[in-house]
Design a protein that fits this description.
Four copies of one chain form a homotetramer. Chain A is mainly alpha-helical and about 200 residues long. The first copy, chain A, has one domain (about 55-200). Helix content of chain A is about 75%, strand content about 0%. In chain A, helix 3 packs parallel to helix 8 (about 185-200) and helix 7 (about 155-185) packs antiparallel against helix 8. The longest helix of chain A is centred in the middle third of the chain and has 31 residues, at about 115-145. The first copy, chain A, is elongated. Chains A and D meet through helix 1, helix 4, helix 5 and helix 6 of A and helix 1, helix 2, helix 3 and helix 7 of D.
Amino acid sequence: MSDTSPQQQSTILPGRLEAFSDGVLAIAITLLILEITVPDADDGSLWRQLGDLWPSYLAYAVSFLTIGIMWVNHHRMTRRLISVDHGFIYRNLALLGFVAFLPFPTAVLADYLTEGGSNAKAAAAFYGLTMVAVSASFGLLWLHVRRTPELSAPGASAEVHSDVVGSAIAVAIYAVAMGVSIVSAVAALAVYGAVAVAFAFRRFD
Amino acid sequence: MSDTSPQQQSTILPGRLEAFSDGVLAIAITLLILEITVPDADDGSLWRQLGDLWPSYLAYAVSFLTIGIMWVNHHRMTRRLISVDHGFIYRNLALLGFVAFLPFPTAVLADYLTEGGSNAKAAAAFYGLTMVAVSASFGLLWLHVRRTPELSAPGASAEVHSDVVGSAIAVAIYAVAMGVSIVSAVAALAVYGAVAVAFAFRRFD
Amino acid sequence: MSDTSPQQQSTILPGRLEAFSDGVLAIAITLLILEITVPDADDGSLWRQLGDLWPSYLAYAVSFLTIGIMWVNHHRMTRRLISVDHGFIYRNLALLGFVAFLPFPTAVLADYLTEGGSNAKAAAAFYGLTMVAVSASFGLLWLHVRRTPELSAPGASAEVHSDVVGSAIAVAIYAVAMGVSIVSAVAALAVYGAVAVAFAFRRFD
Amino acid sequence: MSDTSPQQQSTILPGRLEAFSDGVLAIAITLLILEITVPDADDGSLWRQLGDLWPSYLAYAVSFLTIGIMWVNHHRMTRRLISVDHGFIYRNLALLGFVAFLPFPTAVLADYLTEGGSNAKAAAAFYGLTMVAVSASFGLLWLHVRRTPELSAPGASAEVHSDVVGSAIAVAIYAVAMGVSIVSAVAALAVYGAVAVAFAFRRFD
C-alpha cells in the first residue's frame, strides 16, 4: 500500500471513530445500573432496604455524571479532528478501556462503602485509582493531539492546550482523593462527586 | 477561548446529543430483559413457573412501553433544536440518568409484586417515585427549552409549551399512582400501564 | 398544532426510527452471551463441562442467526419508508419488545434442553411461543405498511405483500414447531434452527 | 421480485451494515466488564482480593484490545465496500456471532487461570479456540470480498489480498497458542496478548 507518509495517516474516518466511542460511552453509562441488585427483603423491610442502598445510588450518580462529562469532553475533542492516526486510535482505545471498566469499581464502592473499616477505604481508593487511569489516558490522548497538529483543524491549539492542562489537574485531584480515602471512604466519594459537578459547571466554549 | 456570549452556546452538535441520547434509551430498553432470571424449576414444574413470572412480563411490558414513549417524545424535542447549550446538556444527562435507572425499580417491582403485604406496596411506590423523577426531569428539560428560545427553531413554542404541560401532568399522575400503591401494588402497576398506553395513543403532530 | 390530517403523519423521521431499531436489535443480539454462565467445575472437569454447555451454544447460535435475519428484514422494510406514522411507531415498538425479550427464552431453553422430561418440552414450547409473537408482530407491522401506501416509496407494494405472506408463513411454522416440542425439545430446536437457516438462504432482492 | 442478477446484489446499504456491525462490536467490548464480579471480602481483605483478580484484569485488557483491533480492521474493510451481497451479510453475521461470544471465554479464562492444573489449560485452550473461530470467520469474509470484485471499490484488491493473508496468519498463531495452553495457561494468555499488541502496532495504511 502506498500511504506510508511520516504522519502515518489512518484510513479510519474521524466520524466513525467518534460514533464507535460514543457507542462505548453510551453503553458503559447505561450498564452502571446492572451493578445494583434487587435486595432480598424480609417481610415488611423492603422500603428500608431500598433506602439502605443509598451508597449504590450515590455511586451510580457520581459515575453516571462522570461518564457523561467524559462524553462531552470527548465529543469536544473529536469534532475538531480532521483525521485520526494510528497513535490516536490506540490511545483512544486505552481511554475507552478504562471508562468501560468503571462499572466494576462503581459496584465495588457501592457494596463496601457502608461496611466501614479498611474495606470501605480500599473500595474508595480503587475507584480513585481507576479515575486516575481514566484522566491520565485522556491527558495522553490530548497530548498526542497537541503533538500532531495535522490531526486537528487550524485554530484548535489553544483549546487543546487547555484540555491537556485540565486532564493533568484531574489526575492530581483524583490522586489526592485517593489519599483522602485513607482517612474516610465517604469523604473520598464526596470528592469524586464534587470533581464531577465542578467539571460539569466548567464553562466550555 | 472566545465564545462566551450570554447564551453560552455549546460546541456540542444537536445531532450528536440526539444520537447519544438515542443510544442510552435503546440500551436501557434492551437491558430490561436481563432483570428476568431463569426460574429454578423442579421436575415438571417449569411451565407453571414460567407462568408465575407474569409480574416480570407485565413490568417488562410497562417499562418497555414507557421508555419507548420517552424515546418518541425526546426525539420530537431534539429534532426541533438548532443548538444546545450547557444547561440543556446537563438537564438531558439527568433525564437519561433517571431513565437508565428504570431497569432497577422494574426488577424490584417484578420480584415483589405477588408477595403482597407492605413489600409489594413499597416496590410499587419505588417504581412510581422513579417515574416522578423521570417526568420531572423531562419537564425541567422542556422548561429550559421554553426559557431559551434561541435553542429551537422558530414556531416551536406552542408545541414546547404543550410538552411542559404534558410533563407536569405526568408528574401529577405518577404521584397519585404512588398514593394508589399504598392501597394495592397491582392497582398501582395498572395505573402505570394505563398512563403509558394513554401517552402512546396521545395524538402527536 | 396543525398537522392533524387523516394520515396522522408523525414528526419522527424514518432514519431515526431505523437507527433506534438497529440499536435495539444490535444490543439484543449481543446480550445473548450474558445468559451463558461460567461453569463451576471441579478439578480437571472444566473441558468436559464446557462441552456439556452445547445446548447453550446451540441456542445462542439459533437466536443470534434469528435476530440477524430480523435485522436484515427490518432494514429491507424501513429503507423503503418515506415517512412513519403513529401506528407504525407503536407496532414497531411491539416488535422490538418481543425481539428484545428473546435472550430470556433462549436462556430458558439452554438451561433445560438436556434435562429431558416435561421441563425441556416446556422450555422449547416457550421459545416457540416467543417466536410466534415475534413473527406475528412483524406481520402486523407489514400489514400496516400495506394498508398505508403513503408510508412507502412507489413500487414497493409487491415486496410488501410478499413480506406479509412471509410473516404469516413464519407464524405457522413456529406454531407447528411448538407442537413438535410436545414430542421432543431437541427436535423443536432443530426446527427453529432450520427455519433460521432457510430464511437466511432465502433470496432477497 | 426482479433483481436476480448474477451478483445477487442486496438491498442492504453498506453504511447500515457497518453501523450495525459497529454497534455489535461496541456492545461486546463494553459487556466484557460485566464478567468481573465484586469479590466477597472478609473484613480487611478487600484490597488483597481486588489484587487477586489480576487474571480478570489481564483477560479484560487482552479481549478489549482484541475486539478494538477487530473494529479497526472491520472498518478498514467495510469503508472500501460499494455494495454488499447476501454472502457478505451472512459471513459478516458469523463473524459478529463469534466476536459477541468472546465475553464468555474471557470470563472462563479469568476464573480458572490461577487455579492451575488442567482446568486452567482447558480455559486457555477454549479462549484460543474462540479466537481461531473469530480469525477464520474474518478470513472467510475477506476471501468472499476477494472473490467478488464488484463489492469493493477499484484498487482495493492488493489490500484485500493482504488482509486474507493476515487472517490466515492469525488463525495459525492462535492454533499454535492453543498448543501452548497444553503446557501453560499463563503462557498462552501471554501469546494472546502479544498477538493483539502486534496487530495493534501493525502499520495499516
